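Notes to self after the Tuesday call (sharing in case useful).
The group wants a holo model before anyone commits to mutagenesis around the pocket. I volunteered. Ligand is fructose -6-phosphate. Logging inputs and output together so the record is complete.
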Amino acid sequence: MIDNRPYTFNVALPGGIPNRFELHTRRTLKSMHGQYLDIEAYNDKLSKEDTLLYEVYELSRPEVAGELIHGISIVHPGLVGNEYFMTKGHFHTVLDTAEIYYVLQGNGKMVLETLQGDWAIEELTPGKMLYVPPKWAHRSVNTSLEHDLITLFAYPGNAGHDYGTIETQGFRKLILIENGEPVIVDNPRWQEPAQREVDL
Ligand code: F6R
Ligand code: ZN
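Result:
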Protein backbone atom coordinates (compact mmCIF):
# COMPACT_ATOMS: atom_id res chain seq x y z
CA MET A 1 0.00 0.00 0.00
CA ILE A 2 1.23 3.50 -0.85
CA ASP A 3 2.38 5.59 2.11
CA ASN A 4 0.48 8.86 1.96
CA ARG A 5 2.35 10.55 4.79
CA PRO A 6 4.74 13.41 3.93
CA TYR A 7 8.37 12.38 3.83
CA THR A 8 11.89 13.64 3.29
CA PHE A 9 14.89 11.82 1.91
CA ASN A 10 18.59 12.56 1.70
CA VAL A 11 20.72 12.75 -1.40
CA ALA A 12 24.30 12.61 -0.17
CA LEU A 13 26.99 14.04 -2.45
CA PRO A 14 29.24 12.97 -3.99
CA GLY A 15 27.50 9.81 -5.12
CA GLY A 16 23.92 11.02 -5.31
CA ILE A 17 22.24 7.76 -4.30
CA PRO A 18 19.12 8.68 -2.31
CA ASN A 19 18.69 6.94 1.04
CA ARG A 20 15.18 5.97 -0.03
CA PHE A 21 13.96 4.66 -3.39
CA GLU A 22 11.64 1.99 -4.74
CA LEU A 23 13.06 1.51 -8.22
CA HIS A 24 16.66 1.32 -9.45
CA THR A 25 17.07 1.23 -13.24
CA ARG A 26 20.46 0.57 -14.84
CA ARG A 27 20.83 1.30 -18.53
CA THR A 28 23.74 -0.22 -20.37
CA LEU A 29 25.20 0.19 -23.84
CA LYS A 30 23.02 -2.49 -25.41
CA SER A 31 19.85 -0.47 -24.67
CA MET A 32 21.18 2.38 -26.86
CA HIS A 33 21.21 0.48 -30.14
CA GLY A 34 21.00 2.89 -33.09
CA GLN A 35 21.36 6.02 -30.94
CA TYR A 36 25.09 6.70 -31.16
CA LEU A 37 26.38 8.27 -34.35
CA ASP A 38 29.49 6.12 -34.69
CA ILE A 39 28.00 2.64 -35.23
CA GLU A 40 31.42 0.99 -35.54
CA ALA A 41 32.62 2.50 -32.25
CA TYR A 42 29.34 1.43 -30.60
CA ASN A 43 29.62 -2.18 -31.84
CA ASP A 44 33.28 -2.33 -30.96
CA LYS A 45 32.68 -1.08 -27.39
CA LEU A 46 29.70 -3.41 -26.93
CA SER A 47 31.71 -6.43 -28.10
CA LYS A 48 34.15 -5.78 -25.25
CA GLU A 49 31.68 -4.93 -22.48
CA ASP A 50 28.05 -3.95 -22.03
CA THR A 51 29.10 -0.79 -20.17
CA LEU A 52 26.83 0.84 -17.60
CA LEU A 53 25.88 4.30 -18.95
CA TYR A 54 23.38 5.65 -16.44
CA GLU A 55 21.20 4.82 -13.47
CA VAL A 56 17.87 6.11 -12.19
CA TYR A 57 16.68 5.90 -8.57
CA GLU A 58 12.98 6.53 -8.39
CA LEU A 59 10.58 7.09 -5.52
CA SER A 60 7.44 5.56 -6.95
CA ARG A 61 4.10 7.28 -6.67
CA PRO A 62 0.73 6.26 -8.12
CA GLU A 63 0.62 6.94 -11.86
CA VAL A 64 -2.14 9.53 -11.63
CA ALA A 65 -2.27 13.20 -12.61
CA GLY A 66 -2.10 14.71 -9.12
CA GLU A 67 1.07 12.86 -8.11
CA LEU A 68 4.72 13.74 -8.82
CA ILE A 69 7.10 10.88 -9.55
CA HIS A 70 10.56 11.96 -8.45
CA GLY A 71 14.08 10.68 -8.10
CA ILE A 72 17.70 10.93 -9.08
CA SER A 73 19.30 10.37 -12.45
CA ILE A 74 23.04 9.63 -12.63
CA VAL A 75 24.76 9.64 -16.02
CA HIS A 76 28.28 8.25 -15.79
CA PRO A 77 31.21 9.78 -17.71
CA GLY A 78 32.49 8.30 -20.94
CA LEU A 79 32.47 8.30 -24.73
CA VAL A 80 31.15 6.12 -27.53
CA GLY A 81 33.36 7.21 -30.40
CA ASN A 82 33.25 11.00 -30.09
CA GLU A 83 29.86 11.09 -28.39
CA TYR A 84 29.33 11.51 -24.67
CA PHE A 85 27.42 9.05 -22.52
CA MET A 86 23.76 10.09 -22.48
CA THR A 87 20.26 8.89 -21.63
CA LYS A 88 17.94 7.27 -24.17
CA GLY A 89 15.66 10.30 -24.12
CA HIS A 90 11.90 10.28 -24.52
CA PHE A 91 8.67 12.14 -25.03
CA HIS A 92 6.12 11.74 -22.28
CA THR A 93 3.26 9.52 -23.49
CA VAL A 94 0.84 12.17 -22.26
CA LEU A 95 2.44 14.97 -24.28
CA ASP A 96 0.88 17.70 -22.15
CA THR A 97 3.00 16.85 -19.12
CA ALA A 98 6.06 18.84 -18.04
CA GLU A 99 9.08 17.96 -15.90
CA ILE A 100 11.62 19.75 -13.72
CA TYR A 101 15.28 18.90 -13.23
CA TYR A 102 17.67 20.28 -10.64
CA VAL A 103 21.39 19.75 -11.15
CA LEU A 104 23.12 18.45 -8.04
CA GLN A 105 26.54 17.62 -9.45
CA GLY A 106 28.53 17.48 -12.67
CA ASN A 107 28.32 19.14 -16.04
CA GLY A 108 26.23 18.38 -19.06
CA LYS A 109 23.57 19.44 -21.47
CA MET A 110 19.90 18.68 -21.87
CA VAL A 111 18.96 18.09 -25.52
CA LEU A 112 15.32 18.95 -26.17
CA GLU A 113 13.07 18.66 -29.18
CA THR A 114 9.41 18.89 -30.17
CA LEU A 115 7.55 16.68 -32.65
CA GLN A 116 7.57 19.65 -35.02
CA GLY A 117 11.39 19.70 -35.05
CA ASP A 118 11.91 22.72 -32.81
CA TRP A 119 15.03 22.12 -30.69
CA ALA A 120 16.88 23.50 -27.68
CA ILE A 121 20.04 22.73 -25.75
CA GLU A 122 20.25 23.78 -22.09
CA GLU A 123 23.40 23.84 -19.95
CA LEU A 124 23.38 21.62 -16.88
CA THR A 125 25.67 22.87 -14.12
CA PRO A 126 25.37 22.46 -10.33
CA GLY A 127 22.56 24.56 -8.87
CA LYS A 128 20.70 24.96 -12.16
CA MET A 129 17.00 24.28 -12.38
CA LEU A 130 15.62 23.22 -15.76
CA TYR A 131 11.99 23.38 -16.75
CA VAL A 132 10.96 20.98 -19.52
CA PRO A 133 7.64 22.27 -20.85
CA PRO A 134 4.94 19.89 -22.09
CA LYS A 135 5.58 18.37 -25.54
CA TRP A 136 9.40 18.50 -25.39
CA ALA A 137 11.42 15.29 -25.63
CA HIS A 138 14.49 15.39 -23.37
CA ARG A 139 17.86 13.64 -23.13
CA SER A 140 20.62 14.29 -20.55
CA VAL A 141 24.20 14.26 -21.82
CA ASN A 142 27.19 14.11 -19.45
CA THR A 143 29.90 16.35 -20.96
CA SER A 144 32.47 15.54 -18.27
CA LEU A 145 34.89 12.69 -18.87
CA GLU A 146 35.61 12.37 -15.14
CA HIS A 147 32.49 13.00 -13.07
CA ASP A 148 28.92 11.75 -12.87
CA LEU A 149 26.11 14.09 -13.94
CA ILE A 150 23.60 13.94 -11.09
CA THR A 151 20.14 15.49 -11.40
CA LEU A 152 16.96 15.43 -9.38
CA PHE A 153 13.76 15.19 -11.43
CA ALA A 154 10.02 15.34 -10.85
CA TYR A 155 7.20 14.77 -13.34
CA PRO A 156 3.44 14.13 -13.22
CA GLY A 157 2.40 10.63 -12.22
CA ASN A 158 0.32 10.14 -15.37
CA ALA A 159 3.09 11.22 -17.82
CA GLY A 160 4.28 7.80 -19.04
CA HIS A 161 7.28 7.38 -21.33
CA ASP A 162 7.38 7.14 -25.11
CA TYR A 163 10.86 5.87 -26.04
CA GLY A 164 9.85 4.57 -29.47
CA THR A 165 9.64 7.92 -31.24
CA ILE A 166 13.23 8.82 -30.34
CA GLU A 167 14.47 5.28 -31.03
CA THR A 168 13.07 5.63 -34.55
CA GLN A 169 13.92 9.21 -35.44
CA GLY A 170 16.71 10.16 -33.02
CA PHE A 171 17.30 13.69 -31.79
CA ARG A 172 18.00 16.46 -34.28
CA LYS A 173 21.15 17.56 -32.43
CA LEU A 174 24.00 15.49 -31.03
CA ILE A 175 26.66 16.51 -28.50
CA LEU A 176 30.14 15.40 -29.54
CA ILE A 177 33.60 16.04 -28.18
CA GLU A 178 35.94 18.11 -30.37
CA ASN A 179 39.38 19.22 -29.16
CA GLY A 180 38.33 18.26 -25.65
CA GLU A 181 35.20 20.45 -25.71
CA PRO A 182 31.52 19.63 -26.26
CA VAL A 183 30.11 20.78 -29.60
CA ILE A 184 26.56 20.67 -30.94
CA VAL A 185 26.25 18.98 -34.34
CA ASP A 186 23.39 18.06 -36.66
CA ASN A 187 22.38 14.41 -36.53
CA PRO A 188 22.76 13.20 -40.12
CA ARG A 189 20.27 10.38 -39.51
CA TRP A 190 17.51 12.71 -38.27
CA GLN A 191 14.61 13.30 -40.64
CA GLU A 192 12.57 16.47 -41.14
CA PRO A 193 9.02 16.06 -39.68
CA ALA A 194 7.58 16.64 -43.18
CA GLN A 195 9.76 13.85 -44.55
CA ARG A 196 8.64 11.53 -41.79
CA GLU A 197 5.01 12.03 -42.73
CA VAL A 198 5.83 11.21 -46.36
CA ASP A 199 7.58 8.04 -45.17
CA LEU A 200 4.50 7.03 -43.19
C1 F6R B 1 11.44 10.95 -16.37
C2 F6R B 1 12.73 11.56 -16.82
C3 F6R B 1 14.02 11.11 -16.13
C4 F6R B 1 14.66 10.08 -17.04
C5 F6R B 1 16.05 9.65 -16.66
C6 F6R B 1 16.57 8.55 -17.61
O1 F6R B 1 10.37 11.39 -17.15
O2 F6R B 1 12.81 12.33 -17.74
O3 F6R B 1 13.80 10.58 -14.89
O4 F6R B 1 13.80 8.97 -17.06
O5 F6R B 1 16.93 10.72 -16.71
O6 F6R B 1 16.37 8.87 -18.94
P1 F6R B 1 15.51 7.94 -19.92
O7 F6R B 1 14.17 7.74 -19.26
O8 F6R B 1 15.40 8.73 -21.18
O9 F6R B 1 16.23 6.64 -20.08
ZN1 ZN C 1 10.83 12.76 -18.75
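Two things stood out.
The first helix runs from residue 39 to 48.
The radius of gyration is 17 Å.
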